[in-house]
Amino acid sequence: MSGSAGRHEIRRIRLEGGNDGGAIRIGATVRRAARAWTPAVHELLRHLERKGFAGAPRALGYDEQGREVLTFLEGETLGNRLVWPEWTRTEEALRQVARWLRDYHAAVADFTPPPDARWRVGGQWSPGQIIGHNDASPFNAAWHEGRLSGFFDWDFAGPVGAESDLAWTALSWVPLHARRVAELEGFRAFDRRGERLRTFLDAYGWHGDPAVIVREIQARMSARARDIRAGAVGGDPLYAKLLRQGRAEDMDRAVLELEDFAW
Fold first, then answer.
1. Which of 151, 153, 38, 27 is nearest to 93 (CA)?
2. What pLDDT digit, counting tens, does each position of 195-227 carry?
3. β-pairing, 68-71 with 29-32?
4. What would the pLDDT profile of 155-176 be if each residue is shown by its tens digit?
5. Domain shared by 41 and 112, yes or no
């Protein structure tokens, strides 16, 4: 191979992070194993592309190995770091994530999934619901030069109320998880969580009672803990891994701690 050809060879990079098999970057694309819900997710991403929504990858179909092909979102990610980088804890990040979610909900509001759409979570869509990201956490965020590029990993997208998607996103960014979990991730300002939640909700444009959001977080965490346990028993490798990691127990603990959440 000539020197010129070597310089133009497309690099293959295994991306860090993820609980569900990982992904490979090839040039400006990401390749991931296709699943039963992938066609529905691609329909969603194509809708977002038609709406001009920039904060999500584009669906490019499948490669010769049957993997889904997506565009790469440029930016720093958490990868496998146990302590999260400082940008995940700033008020500016809170506001940017909230505005991203507001704009996403506006873009997806008129999306009607195909009747045969299969989602990983959420069951069948019905009018009045949206297809939420359902996992817009720092684990799936790309941060580039002080700005949120968007969110990747849409595997948990599925039918949900917009308020529920808002609550689930607030959970990891405020954060409102169990104190033990937040401390391991590097968060210590527990006395400011009420203020941070209000900042997040104001940036989104939600002006209801914050207690409603906290109650929704509790309900969703209880449901997710049940899903993890049931999925693990049913043989789902991702849920089995999450159960071994203690995720269900951490969610149970967070639900109890939020009973005494101070504003």
1. 151
2. 999 999 999 999 999 999 999 999 999 999 999
3. antiparallel
4. 999 999 999 999 999 999 999 9
5. no
List beta partners, residue 59: 70
Question: How far, in Å, CA of 38 to CA of 170, rounded?
Answer: 26
- Are the CB atoms for 165 and 133 separated by under 8 Å? yes
Residue 120 shares a structural domain with residue 201: yes
Spatial distance between the Cα atoms of 182 and 253, rounded to a whole number of angstroms: 12
In this prediction, residues 28-36 reach a mean pLDDT of 95
Q: Are residues 182 and 57 in the same domain?
A: no
Q: In the prediction, which pLDDT does 140 show?
A: 95
- Where in the sequence is the domain holding 39, given as residue range(s)? 11-71
| Whether 171 and 256 share a structural domain | yes
Q: Is 6 inside any structural domain?
A: no
Summarised one tens digit per residue, pLDDT across range 102-158 is 999 999 999 999 999 999 988 889 999 999 999 999 999 999 999 999 999 999 999
pLDDT confidence band for 3 (50 / 70 / 90): very low
- What is the 3-class SS of the chain, one letter each residue? CCHHHHHCCCCEEEECCCCCCCEEEECCEEEECCCCCHHHHHHHHHHHHHCCCCCCCCEEEECCCCCEEEECCCCECCCCCCCCCHHHHCHHHHHHHHHHHHHHHHHHCCCCCCCCCCCCCCCCCCCCCEEECCCCCHHHEEEECCEEEEECCCCCCEEECHHHHHHHHHHHHCCCCCHHHHHHHCCCCHHHHHHHHHHHHHHHCCCCCHHHHHHHHHHHHHHHHHHHHHHHHCCCHHHHHHHHCCHHHHHHHHHHHHHHCCC
Residues 111 and 144 in one domain: yes
